[in-house]
Amino acid sequence: MKKKDKKGFFMWSKHGLWIAAMLIVIILPFFFRSGFSRSMLSQIGIAIIFALSYNMLLGQAGLLSFGHAVFYGLGGFFTIHILNTVSNGVITIPLELLPLAGGFGAVIVGLVFGWLSTERAGTPFALISLGIGELIAASSLMFPSFFGGEQGISGDRMTVFALTGIRFGKQITIYYLIAFWAFLSIVLMYLLTQTPLGRLANAVRDNPERASFIGYNPHWVRTLQYALAAFFAGIAGGLFAVNYEIVTAETVGFIPSGNVLMMTYIGGVGHFFGPILGAVLVTFMQLSLANMTHAWLIYFGLLFIGMVIWAPSGIAGIIMLHEPVWKAKLMKRLIPSYALAVFPALILFLGTVMFIEISYHLSLSVDPTAPMHLFGIHFRAQSLFPWGITVFLILIGFGLLQRAIKRVRQSWGEVNLIMKKESS
Amino acid sequence: MSLPAVKLTDVYKSFGKSRIINRVNLEINTGERHAVIGPNGAGKSTLFNLISGFYPVSSGRIELKGREITNLSSHQINRRGLSRSFQVTNIFPKMSVFENIRCALLWTTGYRYSFWHLCGRLKRLNEKAEELLEKISMTERRHVPAGLLAYAEQRALEIGVTIAGDADVILLDEPTAGMSRSETERAVSLIREVTESKTLIMVEHDMSVVFDLADRISVLVYGEIITTDSPDNIRNNTRVQEAYLGKESA
Amino acid sequence: MLEYIFFSTINSLLYGMLLFMLSSGLTLIFSMMGILNFAHASFFMLGAYFAYQISQFVGFWPGLVIAPLLVGVLGALVERYGLRSVHKHGHVAELLFTVGLAYLIEEIVMLIWGRNAVPYQIPNILDFALVNILGTDLSAYRVFMLVVSIGMFIFLFLVLTRSRIGLIIQAALTHPDGVSTLGHNVPGVFMLVFGGGSALAGLAGVIGGNYLITEPSMAAHLGPIVFVVIVVGGMGSLTGAFIASLLLGAIQTFAVGVQVSLSDLLALFGLTPEPSGLLKDFLRIQISHTGPILPYLFMVLMLIFRPKGLMGKRET
Ligand SMILES: Nc1ncnc2c1ncn2[C@@H]1O[C@H](COP(=O)(O)OP(=O)(O)OP(=O)(O)O)[C@@H](O)[C@H]1O
Ligand SMILES: [Mg+2]
C-alpha cells in the first residue's frame, strides 16, 4: 500500500513537472509585456528546440558537430519558400504547420549528410561536420535563387491562412505558436530518448563495438539519430522564418553553429534539460548584455571557457550534483561555505568587469578621453586610480576565492562522508 | 550429418608482417561445446575476432551454419545468430544492468531502429529482460550502472548481454578468468545453463573448467591448430603436453 | 598567359608555404596529443599583431625573432595551464577549450588593436622590385618570404631527424601510446611541441601578416583551411602536410583566375540551355567563385573515401 502511494506521487511529480512547465510557458508573456521581452521569449523558444536537437547529437550520440546550423538554416529556407508558395496560392498549408516544412526538408538532407558523415564518430565526424558546414555556408552565395543572395529571402506570414483563425500579426500570437511547437518538440525529444533508437544512440556513444555485437550497425544508428536531430533543428529554423519573415544565408553559417554548441555545452550535455537552461541563459545574455555593454562577447567567451575548465558538465551537471545531497537533506551543510564563496566571487567579478570595461573604453570607444561611467560612478579611464582599484579587486577577490573554494571542498568532503555512512 | 555450426577453411591473419593465425581449419559441430586452448599470445582471441567479424581475415573462408560470413561486419554476423563475449569486459558502463540487458534484447525482439516505441511500455521486452536478469542472478543489482559492478558481476552481465539476443552460436572468451574458485563454479553452471541446446565455443585457461564443460577441445599454438580431439585424448596427447600443459606445470 | 601562370605559381607557392608553416605545427599537435587545436590560427594572428606592435617600436627585424618567441611562450603556457587541466575531462572538453580560446583571442585582439585592420607594413628595405619578369615586378619581400619559409622547413626537418627530441616526437607520431612507456617526460614533450607549433604559427603570422592583411578576422579565415591541410595531408605526416599545403595553395590561387562557368563550357559545344532556379545558378557558377568551397569539398571527400589522407600512417 505504502509503496503504491509512493509510486503515485512519483508519477505525479514526473508529469507535474511537465504541467508546471506548460503553465509557466502560458503565463510568461503576462509578466513580460514589452515588445523587446516578448520577442526575446520567442527567440528563447526557438533556441531551446535548436539546442535540444543539438544535444541529440552531442549528448546522446557523442557526435560533436560544428555544422548543425546547416539544418537550422535550411529549415528556415524551406519554410520561407513554402510560405511564399502558399502566399502565391499554389498550395494551401496553414501557417501553424509551416515549420514542419522546415523539419521534413531538413530530415531528408539530414539522412544524406548523416550517412556520409557518421561512419566514424569522434574527430572524423567533427571535421566532416565542419567541412559540410563551411561548404553549405560558402555555397549559399552561389545559389541565389534558393538562398536569396545578400538580402536573403523574405515572406509575409499575414498572407497565409491560419488553421486556428488567429491573425498572426502581433508578437504575442507568434510567441504562442513558438511556445506550442517548443513544448511539443521538447516532449517528443524527451520521449525519443526512451525509444530503442534513443537507447542505442547512448549505447553506440559509449561502446560502438559492443553495439555491433548485439546486432546494431553503429553507422545506421548514428545516421538516424542525426536525421532526427536535423528534423528538430529544421523545425526551429522554420519557426525562425515564421517569426522574422526573413531568412538570410547567415543562418546556415558558422555563427549559429557555434552558438548552439556553446548554449548546449554551457547548459550541460549530460542531462536532458541541460540545453534548455543553456538556451535560456545564453539567449538572454546575448540580448540583454548586448544592450548593456559593447564588450559582451568577451564576457560570453570567458563564461564558455570557464565552464569548459571548471564545470564541463554544465549548469545541469552542477544542479544534479546536488540532487543526492538534497535528498539526504544535507544542503544546509553546504550552504554556509557557498555563502562564504559568493563574496570573493563578486569582488573578482567586479574587478574583471572593471578591467574589461576600462580597456574597452580606452581602445574601442569613440572618444577615449571622455569620462566613462561604470556602476553609476564617473571617472576618467586614463587616470591610474581606477586601474589601481581594478587590480586590487582582482587580486583580493582571487585570493579570497581560493580560500573559499577550499572551504567548499571541505564541506563537500564532509557531506560525502555522511552520505557514504548512511548508504552503507 | 548436419552442417557444422562454424567452419573455417585455410584462414590466415597477419598484422603487418607478423602472421598471427596460420592456416586454421576448424569445424565446430552444431550443438557441441567446444573449447579452444593454447598458451598466451597463441592467437585465440584473434581467432574469435575473425569469426565474429571484428577483424577481416587476411585470407581464407569462414562459414556460419553453412553460409559464408567471411568479412561481413560484426552486426551482420550477429544477426545471423552468432554472439560473443570479450576477454576484457565489454559492456555499456554508463547504463544500468537492466538497460544493458534490455538493449541486448532489442534487435532480436524485433524493435530494431524503432523510434516510435517506448522501451518502458514494451511488456514482452521488459519481461524477457527480467527473466534474463533472474537467470544471471542480478535482479537485485538491476539499477546499478554496469561500470560500478564488481568484477565477477561484470563478467556475469557480459555473459547475459552475449546470450540475450538468443544467438545459437555463442563465443565466450575466457569467461572465468580472474575469478575465485566459488565464482568460477557459479560461472560454469551459468554457462552450462544458458548454452543448453546451443553451440558454444570458448577460450579458457582454467583446465578444470575446460574438461568440465567441453565436448571437444582444439589446441592453438603459434596460430596453428595442432590438434582437435575429445578431452580424454587431449589430456593424453604428448604434443599438447609439450606445447601447453607441460609448460603450465613447469 | 605565361605571365599569369608564372605569377600564379609564385603566389600559390607563397600561400602554400604559409599554410605549411601553420599546418606543420598543427599536425604535430594533432597527431601527438590528439587535440584538434582550433586556436592554432589564432596564434598565427597573434604573431602578426605582435610583429606589428614591435615594428612600431623597434622595426621589423627584431619582431621577426621576438614575436614568434612570444607566441611560442604563450602557446606553452596555454598548454601547461589550460589544456593540461582540461585534459581530465576528455577530448571534447579539450577541443572546446581551444574553440573558446580562439573566440577569446579574437575578442581580445579587437579590444587591444581595434576592429579594423592595422597598418602592418612590409619593411622598407625589402619594399622594392627584385627582378622584372615577363613585364611584371617580383617584389623582394615575396622572395624573402619564400626564403624564410624554406629556411623554416629545413630547420624543422633537421630538428626532427637529427635531435633527440625530434626522434622522440617522430616515435610519438607513429605510436602515440608508446612514448610514455619509453619513460620520457611526456607532459614536457607535449608542452614543447605545443609551444613550438605555436611559435611556427606565430612566425607565419609575422611574415604573412603584412603580405595578407592583419585584421581580427584573419584567424577565422585561415583556421578551417589549415584543418583541411592536415586532413588531406594525413595524420602524423609532415610530408603529407607539405604536399597538401602546396596543393591547396595551388587550387585556391589558380581557381581565382579562371572565369569559366559550366554554361560557358556547354556553349563551346553549342549548347545553350536556359534552365531556371537552382540549375541556372549551378550553371552560372564561375570556377573563380568556387575557390572558397573547393578545400572543404576536398576535405569532406577525403574523410569519407580516404580517411588516412594522402600520406597518413593512421586514420584521422
Ligand atoms: N590488433 C592487433 N594488432 C597487432 N597485433 C595484434 C593485434 N591483436 C592481437 N595481436 C597480436 O596477436 C597475438 C595473439 O594475440 P591474441 O590476443 O589472439 O592471443 P591469445 O591467444 O588470446 O592470448 P591470451 O591467452 O593472452 O588472451 C599477440 O602477439 C598480439 O600481440
Ligand atoms: Mg585472448
Average pLDDT confidence of chain B is 92
Determine the oligomeric state from the structure: heterotrimer
Low-confidence stretches of chain B: none
**Estimated structural class of chain A:** mainly alpha
Spatial strand order of the main sheet of chain B: 6-7-8-3-9-10
Based on secondary structure, the structural category of chain B is alpha/beta
Give the structure's gist in a few sentences.
Chain B has 250 residues and is an alpha/beta fold.
Write the layout of secondary structure elements.
The complex is a heterotrimer of chains A (about 425), B (about 250) and C (about 325).
Chain A: H1 2-31, H2 35-61, H3 69-87, H4 98-117, H5 122-139, H6 144-147, E1 153-154, H7 171-192, H8 196-206, H9 208-212, H10 218-244, E2 246-247, H11 254-267, H12 274-292, H13 296-310, H14 314-321, H15 323-327, H16 331-364, E3 372-374, E4 377-379, H17 384-423
Antiparallel strand pairs in A: 1-2, 3-4
Chain B: E1 6-15, E2 18-28, E3 33-37, H1 44-51, E4 59-64, E5 67-68, H2 74-79, E6 82-84, H3 97-109, H4 123-135, H5 151-164, E7 169-173, H6 181-194, E8 199-203, H7 207-213, E9 216-221, E10 224-229, H8 231-236, H9 238-249
Parallel strand pairs in B: 3-8, 3-9, 6-7, 7-8
Antiparallel strand pairs in B: 1-2, 1-4, 4-5, 9-10
Helix pairs in contact in B: 3-4, 3-5, 5-6
Chain C: H1 2-33, H2 40-58, H3 60-86, H4 91-113, E1 129-133, E2 136-139, H5 140-162, H6 164-174, H7 178-181, H8 186-209, H9 218-233, H10 238-257, H11 262-268, H12 277-284, H13 294-305
Antiparallel strand pairs in C: 1-2
Helix pairs in contact in C: 1-5, 1-8, 1-9, 1-10, 2-3, 2-4, 2-8, 2-9, 3-8, 5-6, 5-8, 9-10, 9-13
Bound molecules: adenosine-5'-triphosphate and magnesium ion (MG).
